[in-house]
Specification:
Shape: globular
Radius of gyration: 18 Å
Oligomer: single chain
CATH architecture: 3-Layer(aba) Sandwich
Number of domains: 1
Strand content: 15-25%
Number of strands: 8
Largest sheet: 8 strands, mixed
Low-confidence stretches: none
Strand order of the largest sheet: 1-2-4-3-5-6-7-8
CATH superfamily: Alpha/Beta hydrolase fold, catalytic domain
Length: 289
Amino acid sequence: METMALKRQLQALENSAEKRMVPCHDGEMVYRCWNGPADAETVLLVHGGSGSWLHWFRNIAFLQQRCHVVTVDLPGLGDSAALPEGYTANDAVDIFSRGTLDIMQGKSFHIVAFSWGCAVSSQAAVHLGKQLRSLFLTGPASLGDIPRRGAMKPLIRRTPDMSALEVREANRENLARLMIYDRSRIDDLAVLIQVLNTQKARFNSPQFARSKLVLEGVARSRVPLKVVYGQYDAPGLPDIVAKKDLFEAVSDHVEFEIVADAGHWLQYEQASVFNEMTLQWLTKNSARS
């Protein structure tokens, strides 16, 4: 499909949302809100590193049928303002925590997070208090200095001298190395999202990948917790199964699951499976259950 047609798909979904801003350093952090049924639960989707709300493109419309859906562009990513030089992970967590409480206006909500968003959300959970009803982590890193990535090839660096075609193909290959297990599922839309996201990325989340941000945050939180990995999650390899023990060592209320035939960007590669799994989790932990 031609790039302009794909961009129109992305724009149509964005146009259907209410965009709301909160302070972020010397600019703003951007949330997008889609209304679901009148009495529905609210779910906040928190994207991964070098990403934006577009990481959830294949999930928003489905979840909106049953939930109020909110997305965020984290500091220095997507359309949100960058942090000053020398920023820490806590800087992003603090801004996210304050902004989310402002956006939610006293209402309860659930968080579904991906990759870097898992670190931010886990750390923020204690600050979000009783408004946070559950935490669903997809492909979390920041579990300490443990063996990672197995035989994953390094990502291709994009340089200013590359043509637009070369940039697209570099991003296509990087998706295969990092994000999507089955190359046949790397469609033109996935490549476009990756190009748009990486063009706007000004926050270096990989520097925090060997920290214990996720485990430390989970240990302080008492909300229901689900942790999900794709079977072939590249940053999670070589031993994804062992991560269950890491979470159970710090939490007595974790539900752990591995989804077959999927990589890191689980919610895109296996969107139907992910969407149903997410809806079941939200229903299980709803205010009415």
